[in-house]
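1st attempt posting a full record on here, be nice pls
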Amino acid sequence: MIKRSERLNNVSYDLCGPLYEKAKELELEGHRITKLNIGNPAPFGFEAPKEVVQHVIRNFANAQGYSDHKGLFSARHAVKRYYREKGIANISEEDVYLGNGLSELIMHAVEALLNAGDEVLVPSPDYPLWTAAVRFAGGKAVHYHCDEEANWFPDVQDIKRKITDRTRALVLINPNNPTGAVYSKEVLQELVQLAEAENLVIFSDEIYDKILYNDTAFTSTATLSESVLFVTFSGLSKNYLAAGFRAGWMLVSGAKHKAQEYICGLNILASLRVCSNVPAQFAIEAALNGQHNIFELTKPTGRLGIQREICYEKLTTIPGITCVKPNGAFYMFPKLDMKQYNLASDQQLALGLLSEQHVLLVPGSGFNYPYHDHFRVVYLPAPEELSQTMDRLQTFFKNHQQ
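the predicted structure (as tokens):
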């Protein structure tokens, strides 16, 4: 038998795991599946800004050759300006790396840092790519608690308890996937001070930094210090509704003077894949230089704002379900009182919902959350479809009450 690499033994990604494969089987049988498993805006009628698409089309003939391994200078210049306007100091185009989506760049950032057995502090619940990337690189993902009773903010004391002499980095996902939390400046300052004291790299995943509700303030972590090495991640998938472009970037800032070997490693990995896809790099330039404002969707009367209200109201009317209302992104992470239902686990919940109501979502354990009583809902479907889908959830839970 030809076996897979042992590095994959502890690597999983439940967003496209066995439940997703089951959903495809049901589709082949003729069933229509409502896919709330992944934050992909396009199937639900969201479109990238027209000027971004047109800019890519106009420059397609100019995208036939390789770019610099870090990316087109014009696109990196746009990224640099984006973060300077946020308040990140002492950065240049050479600190910016463009990638085939955030996934590739997360893998690069982690692989360039870790040796076998090194530890990275990852939130629980997390976006599971972070845990997978650490494990694939030979490291150990140490999950720190995010407190549902405190708006899903990181538990700083738990983080402190879990730091060892092998800890190399702290991952922050803000705005958060899967909870929708947006961290306060005060919490971020506390975490930055801890990272400085412990000489930790901060990986700050900020892919949803424009998707905010109710005038919620967002602070980019790297604005808070120049004494910590920050690697900040974002892209076009969410803020600009262009997930299929696979256009992402990362910015290295802060204490670069003590990270020259690490930065050299990032350069090596960037050059090994030659460059990211060049047409999408033109999209980055156009998006960041354009006038697109997702606030038209996130305001109370905007489509995402309306869908957020529908999802929250319908979920929390189901007996035994509670939910922290999200301030960012387009996810909810509700909790189910398992004692009220004939369901043994979140996995059984998700499989039953798929089989009986043809709704695909991800159980909380798929986000490395240790308690099997949560699930994630993506509220991207249009209001009418979302309302009908929530009604199907209500029917499912009614059928499974004790």
